[in-house]
Amino acid sequence: MPTHSNTIPVLGLGTYGRTGPEGLDALLVALELGYRHLDTAQSYGTEQNVGEAIARSGLPRDEFFVTTKVADTRLTTADFLPSVEKSLETLGLDQVDLLLIHWPSSKDAVPFEDYMTGLAQAKARGWARQIGVSNFPIALLDKADQVIGAGQIATNQIEIHPYLQSPKIRDYAASKGLTLTAYMPLAKGKVSTDKLLTALGEKHDVTAAAIALAFLMAQGHVVIPSSARRERLVENLAARSVTLSPEDLAAIGALDRNERMINPEKSPRWDD
Question: Per residue in 99-115, pLDDT tens?
Fold first, then answer.
């Protein structure tokens, strides 16, 4: 991917859990299969493996799109930029393609303006090509525009899957031209046993998981499924070649039941 591109590859690889030698092996397999968008975070403990996998691939740096996230424990002015510098050191990179705030500060323990300013400063220093947020509701997205300027946020990474389609924030994002990145797009594997998705998978000669991913991408979302298994990695990549009909899309749209799977105590007030 050219270093000047401001787009986010629509299908990436979540790296949560890919720690230790086994995690590194899984990442190397993913790169061999063609994954180039790698999503990590300070709190995952996978930045080192992501950097090592990229180095071992022998491919040029600009072939990759790397995202990392600043942990909510490092949002203070004193901690923010040093934590980003440490992430770059751990990754073995001069710059990430996308730097996100992982979670907003719970109960405003750290002033919002402080960490949003830190995010903008990381970009200004050249440490991040693009910046964005994760787990932000609409109110905080609006506030972010006020603090650092409209159009600065490249994406909001939130939980989205066929059972949690988040129509309010989806429509808001569409109205703003903001890309949403869907984490946990396979609903912790639940999509694999869904009767509708399985039937559509048979129709399109792919897995139910690939149908779920194709649906989310058809809605304009970036998806970052995660797997350590070669066959699943291959199956998920196949989603890129699936074209769902309007009838298929409507049927999957009807699966939405506002089923949220990640909702820690520190969560903001969700819109959907």
Answer: 999 999 999 999 999 99
Show the tokens assigned to 244. Answer: 């769902």
Q: Which residues are catalytic?
A: 44
Residues 6+ apart with CB under 8 A from 62: 1, 2, 3
CB neighbours (10 Å) of residue 147?
16
Provide the pairing of β-strand 96-101 with 128-134: parallel
CATH superfamily of the domain spanning 13-159: NADP-dependent oxidoreductase domain (3.20.20.100)
d(CA 90, CA 23): 16
- Residue-wise pLDDT for 74-101, tens only, equals 999 999 999 999 999 999 999 999 999 9
CA 101 remoteness from chain centre:
12
Three-state DSSP at 229 gives coil
User: ∠ at Cα 184 (95, 196), nearest 5°?
Assistant: 140
Looking up tokens 């799109």 gives: 65
**Domain ranges for the chain:** 13-159
